[in-house]
């Protein structure tokens, strides 16, 4: 009996240590740039004592790399949560049954349009799709359809629609305009001699050098160049009454189904969704727009309530992105 009790006590001690260990570590996969995400994760680690094991996406496979890894690991999940730099891949994971619902108390101040209604993912700290315009351009564009105006022929540039946030933007246009009008727009880009760059950063650089008059990019690409003192200005597209508005792309955080450390993962989700985290991301060089009301935005960017926002269903955009791939490949 004495040996039995000793064995039971030893087992209890080891299982208790295991539970303690499990409550004090968490594994997160991250698509947001490491230079911006890592300091926040380190701050969480210091504040809570919970060890954060972070796996970052590479620049070459941005967004798709860790998403594909999560799908491959779905029967034996290694990550507890995922920080995506946009919500479309979050929706893909939800549709594949890889996520678990969690409604963080810190999500209450975030507008409903930026989160899954059942809590499978929640948006925070957004970018907005915006024009960077060279200051020597006499007439500034006011809307996305200005890409097709003859007066700008050969004077504009856009990142390749087959990749990144430009693909998301094309899916958003598809959702608002339909297939035929999207195809007309895409063909019009070629007919009006719109240059195609490798990415938003290259587009912004070529505009700031004066090689092109304007480009549609993400707001963080624009702010970086403003802070360098480059000769550009910003224009929010389609802001008049009845126009489609500017596309806002939030980050998204989500809990993995069958996470090994769900308690610690929920604490990290709460931390990322806090107004304090949004304030830090707003003041960092990524210059992201807070989704919580009352949090000061970057000085170069308008607050969310000052922007006419494109009304899109992020869940549907995930499907639309797949639908438009043949069209994009055909034209580009």
Question: Keywords for this structure?
Answer:
332 residues; alpha/beta; 2 domains; 11 helices; single chain; D-Maltodextrin-Binding Protein, domain 2; disordered N terminus; 41% helix; 10 strands; ten-stranded mixed β-sheet
Describe the structure.
With about 325 residues, this protein is of the alpha/beta class. It folds into two domains: about 20-125 and about 250-305, 3-Layer(aba) Sandwich (D-Maltodextrin-Binding Protein, domain 2); about 125-245 and about 320-330, 3-Layer(aba) Sandwich (D-Maltodextrin-Binding Protein, domain 2), CATH 3.40.190. It is about 40% helix and about 15% strand. Strands 1, 2, 3, 4, 5, 6, 7, 8, 9 and 10 form a ten-stranded mixed β-sheet that branches. It is globular. The protein starts with a helix and ends with a helix. The model is unreliable at about 5-20 (pLDDT under 50).
- Terminal CA distance reads 77 Å
Number of domain units: 2
Give the DSSP E fraction (strand runs of 2 or more residues).
15-25%
Query: Outline, from the CA principal axes?
Result: globular
- By DSSP (H or I, 4+ residues per run), the number of helices equals 11
Tally of DSSP β-strands:
10
List segments where confidence is low: pLDDT < 50 over at least 5 consecutive residues: 3-21
The helix content is: 40-55%
Kindly identify the CATH topology of the largest domain.
D-Maltodextrin-Binding Protein, domain 2
CATH class type of the largest domain: Alpha Beta
At the fourth CATH level, what is the homologous superfamily of the largest domain?
Periplasmic binding protein-like II
At CATH level 2, the architecture of the largest domain is 3-Layer(aba) Sandwich
Query: What does the average pLDDT come to?
Result: 91
**Rounded radius of gyration (Å):** 22 Å
